[in-house]
Design a protein that fits this description.
By secondary structure, this protein is mainly α. The protein is built from 21 helices and 7 strands. Helix 13 packs parallel to helix 15. The two termini are 36 Å apart.
């Protein structure tokens, strides 16, 4: 097996068609890129017991979002390790290990869902699966840059394009399996037909002479159900969300596809070059494109590495938090103001389109950078990104005052442009590294740089979940000032002084409070992400400065053999 996976076994013959290589690269990235569709899992994971809505023992959104963060952290850590390993063993062996980690991580995570052990979900999908992400991510990048030295940006775009499009395929597939395995809980009847008891913030009803925990579903919750059902009272832990079975099936699918793709990898011979192409002379090179090479360890001693680290980290932080809660964000901002348009199907389609623009942006922006330069490309990302992020709170505020579809269209367009630049940033960075540090060790240097992604995987979701939760708490407090205590008692079966317990047990939510709020009260849900968007714009401003200060690497860092520069 070690011989079958060795680097020597995959050297291509001289007449090999290099356009066959991107197929394997895209296939692997389409599998691991489904991590961007994590937000599809958020609703069923937070309703494992309640199924139609969250019950007291269900995981919270902030708990399950962090699974996504852990996966991204280990992506960066694994990539930092695998970059140098890749140069030694070749992409086939790295790809096979990636397949086992990503597919196996899904299966371990599935067992965590079945047993309701959150740590096992973190270990499987987050740690093991995250390592698979990192290994699978770096395996095609340096390979394609070697096959396409004449078009570095386009090569990096092809290598990473599939990662952005993974959610485009993964989203409908996940939705299909979740619906396939979904089983609605037992329905007891409309709320007026059932005698409810509130104990320690939870709701109970008598079923067959036994008091059982139940959840109450109002009009707002019906909109978010996996499959439509009536408003009323449902028995907790009597149905199935379908997400555990989905993990098992998808894990096996990804394992098989990635193994096939890994065995399809080929490397060019050391002396190979495209027909009719030669390395440009020093005077023919564009600005910031070096003809020299920098060793992996030496690159860490240059300021350019850390400038690019900041550029990648802050660009990813600004986008990854939004990606992790994309479906939830869409329903939060527009689900209450435009309920006839924005339902669960619309939100799922939004995730698919997000993936499509993420994928297309990777190829288009990376290819464009071959002509306008990498630094100029990032200038566009940051200047335009600042404007677009700041426009999101404005559109959210406007739609809460005037529920017009115009604001939905604007929000949709603005975020899709953001996602093209988010993906374009990932796809352009390998070519940027090759320009600055040379191509010889670009795979290893790229792996080290992806620790910036790990950091962003923590900062982005931390910012969006903490700021969102703070906005939720403030919104509930503000709504409570308008609600009559007697009405509250009749609605929830507990006095106002038990508000904190009721909120903690998911019995009181913004949508449930809006049902008893005075007529004309503005629903605050659409503004839950305003502070987050302002913060993301500020981060892009810092990244803009770091990119503007980029200069060529000092000659003392270039590789030499007996005093002669290696070019």
């Amino acid at each position: 097996m070690s011989g079958l996976l060795s680097k020597d076994r995959i050297i291509a013959p001289a007449d090999y068609n290099r356009w066959r290589v991107p197929v394997a690269s895209v296939a692997i990235h389409l599998c691991i890129g489904s991590v961007y569709a994590w937000s599809i899992y958020n609703p069923p994971l937070t309703k494992l017991f309640g199924v139609v809505t969250s019950a007291g023992d269900d995981w919270s959104l902030s708990e399950v979002v962090w699974v996504f963060s852990v996966a991204i952290v280990f992506l960066g850590l694994a990539a930092a390790f695998a970059g140098k390993w890749l140069e030694n063993v070749g992409p086939r062996k790295v790809g096979v290990v990636a397949a086992c980690c990503w597919g196996g991580g899904y299966i371990v995570g599935g067992f965590g869902i079945v047993t309701h052990q959150l740590w096992l979900l973190y270990l499987g999908y987050g740690v093991i699966g995250g390592c698979g992400l990192g290994l699978g991510y770096v395996s095609p990048v340096s390979t394609l840059i070697r096959w396409f030295p004449d078009r570095r940006g386009m090569a990096a775009g092809m290598a990473i394009m599939g990662f952005g499009g993974g959610a485009m395929i993964g989203t409908p597939m996940k939705e299909f399996f979740i619906r396939l395995f979904y089983r609605a809980p037992d329905f007891l009847g409309a709320i007026a037909e059932v005698d409810l008891v509130t104990q320690a913030g939870r709701r109970f009803a008598e079923v067959g002479g036994v008091l059982q925990e139940v959840v109450v579903v109002g009009a707002a919750e019906v909109r978010d159900m996996t499959l439509p059902g009536p408003e009323g009272v449902y028995v907790v832990n009597s149905g199935a969300s379908g997400v555990a079975e989905t993990f098992f099936v998808i894990g096996l699918i990804y394992l098989v596809v990635m193994l096939i793709a890994s065995f399809s990898y080929r490397l060019p011979a050391p002396d190979w070059s495209p027909a009719g192409w030669k390395e440009p002379a020093e005077g023919e090179r564009k600005a910031l494109i070096s003809g020299n090479h920098v060793d992996i360890d030496q690159a860490l001693k240059t300021p350019q590495f850390y400038q690019l680290w900041i550029v990648l980290c802050l660009n990813v932080t600004a986008g990854i938090g939004v990606l992790g809660v994309a479906r939830t964000m869409m329903t939060d901002i527009f689900g209450t103001t435009l309920p006839d348009i924005v339902d669960t199907a619309f939100a799922a389609t939004y995730v698919v389109m997000m993936s499509a623009f993420n994928m297309v942006g990777r190829f288009i922006w990376a290819s464009a950078s071959d002509y306008i330069g990498r630094r100029n490309t990032y200038w566009i990302f940051f200047l335009l990104g600042i404007v677009l992020y700041l426009s999101v709170p404005f559109s959210a505020q406007q739609v809460s005052v005037n529920p017009s579809v115009v604001w939905l269209v604007y929000f949709y367009a603005a975020t899709m442009i953001i996602f093209t630049m988010y993906g374009g940033g990932f796809a352009t960075i390998p070519a940027y590294l090759a320009d600055i540090f040379g191509t010889r060790y670009v795979g290893g240097i790229h792996g080290r740089l992806l620790t910036a992604w790990s950091t962003a995987g923590v900062l982005g979701p931390l910012a969006i979940t903490s700021l969102r939760q703070n906005s939720v708490n403030n919104a509930i407090d503000n709504l409570m000032t308008t609600i009559d205590p007697a009405t509250f008692l009749a609605q929830f079966g507990a006095p106002v002084d038990q508000l904190e317990v009721l909120v903690a047990q998911n019995s009181v939510t913004i949508s449930r409070l809006m049902e008893i709020a005075p007529a004309g009260t503005t629903d605050p849900t659409s503004g839950l992400y305003n502070s987050t968007m302002v913060l993301m714009a500020a981060l892009l401003g810092i990244a803009l400065v770091s990119n503007a200060l980029m200069k060529p690497v000092d000659a003392r860092h270039h590789m030499k053999v007996e005093g002669t520069l290696i070019t």
